[in-house]
Amino acid sequence: MNFSNLLADRTRNMGSSAIRELLKVVEQPGMISLGGGIPAPESFPLQLFDDLTSQVLKKYSSNALQYGPSEGFRPLREALVVYLKKSDIRTSVDNITITCGSQGVLDSIGKILISKGDKIAVEAPTYIGALSAFNPYEPEYIALETDYDGVIPESLEKALKHNKIKFVYLIPTFQNPTGRTIPLERRKKIAEIIRYYNALLLEDDPYSSLRYRGEAIPAIKTMAPDNVLYTSTFSKILAPGLRIGFSVGPELITKWMVLAKQGIDLHTNTFSQALAAEYIEGGHLDKHLPRILSIYKPKQEAMLNALAKYFPGNFQWSKPAGGMFIWAEGPSGFSTEKLYCKALERKVAILPGQYFYPHPGMGLETMRLNFTMMDAPTIDKAIKILSEVIKEELSRVSMSYS
Amino acid sequence: MNFSNLLADRTRNMGSSAIRELLKVVEQPGMISLGGGIPAPESFPLQLFDDLTSQVLKKYSSNALQYGPSEGFRPLREALVVYLKKSDIRTSVDNITITCGSQGVLDSIGKILISKGDKIAVEAPTYIGALSAFNPYEPEYIALETDYDGVIPESLEKALKHNKIKFVYLIPTFQNPTGRTIPLERRKKIAEIIRYYNALLLEDDPYSSLRYRGEAIPAIKTMAPDNVLYTSTFSKILAPGLRIGFSVGPELITKWMVLAKQGIDLHTNTFSQALAAEYIEGGHLDKHLPRILSIYKPKQEAMLNALAKYFPGNFQWSKPAGGMFIWAEGPSGFSTEKLYCKALERKVAILPGQYFYPHPGMGLETMRLNFTMMDAPTIDKAIKILSEVIKEELSRVSMSYS
């Protein structure tokens, strides 16, 4: 039986993620992957977890296993109000919604806001999962220009001035894929622009807790609270398999997200929400986070050191103070898609950067490098191999010019 | 800040669930609710649960907490292949998708199949959560006629003959809201019609495990496997808070559901999927299900007995052999909306049936009665009070005629 005649128009926009296909090769034995984007399993509080489940069952009994409200498990929303205050995000329980990962926020925002052809402004490059969430609702993307300090405010202002933009989507801190962070002054400018144009900003902040150096920078949410729907996740500070994300919204957006969520999944997993609540309230997050940082910091340093040691002079890369990714760019005309194929033969997997752009043909010379899944010596080895392949490619390219 | 100008066209179809509003009163102290639809907390395997979490953490370690594939945790999908075989549903791991409750199946099916104005055939009345899932994709509903044996095959045939129907949605066993079950012979006819018209049936089967009397009736999936996307859930046989649903699909539908799911929530909670896998594989479901049945059977009998004892002669009601609901109908012209208000004053909550119809103005004299949440004596008391209110209403109505 072939039901392809039944597919909705929007389904054409759901092509299989190229990244998903590329990453399938990563599972080959002996492959060193710089291509993934998942947390190190040793960063999960596995020892604690068994105790945490017992505590939660004792504390909430059958309520931890029962249906719950679409907006989320109240003790978790209450714990988040206190937790967010530490980052100067002041909100009330009523403005917090719990979702199935922050992906759940992206999907429901797409669902309630995007009509076909609506314009969404996104960084170029941006998180590919956001594009997967928005695509089925058939938006048009306005690509915002970025530099090594993230989105360029003038580009944002131009976009808002000349277009009717439904919302702006930004990842201001340790962005996926670039690792870039928007500095304080630029954030203030962005907040001012957003407020001036009475625009809605979806601020995605999954990585800011993973800071290995320097001072925390306040979220744009703190600078334009009424204009920002802030979203984050427990995926990087507890465990991604629990699928607990949350949003801190303007009231009306929150209200409609909750209505949409009734149709999407009724509500998020109660048991995992109770675990996340206990993880914060019991002080476990505060104790465990330094351990996570101590795992990632040396890995990230190993990658930055290896890049400095091995990469050719005509390559540039981001030097983030946290997060999970480094973004590298070759000279104009260099193809990281070709590099991907050649590096695979040497058992190193990378992710070409072009898939992170909202429009095809951009970022052909870029790549995303992840450092969370390997130990420091393996990272050094992988970057060394990658550099060798790059140099072969560069010489091949320059020969083809001659 | 008011962002209501930003809402997508489809968002107009997401009005707050009337049921949700009606059920808010249920939380008042002293209220006896026949209006809800949730499992009894004492039906959860709470004692077992603590052991189950430890076993899962020992067995799968950090894999139980890590990101997982969008199609679902493989050990759960493998366990389901074996489990479904007992109900004569023969499938392979590749055709099984795990979702956030069966609500997740309804949403993703809506997403991949429904373009604005597409026709969906549903029972009248039907599960309101299905309407909430489909509504945002802006379908038109074709209401299928039903009697005490569920959907009438001739009505289905007529609908398929005269309309281009995207899919048919049915709950053949212990339907929500009516409790009705389609008998074997009628299922065979339905399977034949579906096959003849090369139609797609979404067969929602959350309740068939909750059988208190009589023989199991095979799913329509067993009779037209290529035309049916079968969906069920762990909400009634383990715990709804885990949000684990699944579908057994025709291959192409499954493939597109998985693509859609990448944008919706990446994947379903890994830890809960591992718990569900262990619950089946370890033989716990087989041991625990009789306990669940022993909790519900006397409650359901209490309600059927009380209805026979107290309800007036011009009322009819379903006598299901399982599930969670009984459907009662007053004489033509009787308003269960008014009954709802009057019964509330006597501290008994019911759910007017009209909200379960795809079109307004239908089922004004109907109501759904749930028996899972109270003990037998309380059920008897509630039905007695309800009967008194009904009789007052009936005499008031007859007086207003005279």
- State which percent range the strand residues of chain A make up: 5-15%
Overall mean confidence score, pLDDT of chain A: 95
Main sheet properties of chain A: 7 strands, mixed
Main structural class of chain A: alpha/beta
Order of helices and strands of chain A: HEHHEHEHEEEHEHEEEHHHEEHEEEH
Helix content, binned percent of chain A:
40-55%
Oligomer: homodimer
How many separate helices of chain A?
Answer: 12
Radius of gyration of chain A: 21 Å
Q: Largest interface, by Cβ-Cβ below 8 angstroms: which chains and how many residues each?
A: A-B, 84 and 84 residues
Distance between the termini of chain A: 56 Å
The stretches of 5 or more residues of chain A where confidence is low (pLDDT under 50) are none
Q: Can you tell me the overall shape of chain A? A: globular
General description of the model:
The structure is a homodimer of 402-residue chains. In chain A, 41% of the residues lie in helices and 14% in strands. With 402 residues, chain A is an alpha/beta fold. In chain A, the strands form four sheets. A seven-stranded mixed sheet of chain A has the order 2-10-9-8-7-3-4, with helices on both faces. Chain A has a four-stranded antiparallel sheet with strand order 11-12-15-14. In chain A, helix 4 crosses helix 8. The first copy, chain A, has helices at 18-24, 46-60, 74-85, 101-113, 128-134, 153-162, 184-196, 251-264, 270-281, 284-310, 336-345, 376-401, and strands at 32-33, 96-100, 119-123, 140-144, 146-147, 150-151, 165-170, 201-204, 228-233, 244-248, 316-317, 325-329, 348-349, 351-352, 366-370. In chain A, strand 3, helix 5 and strand 4 (140-144) form a beta-alpha-beta unit. The interface between A and B is large, with 84 and 84 residues.
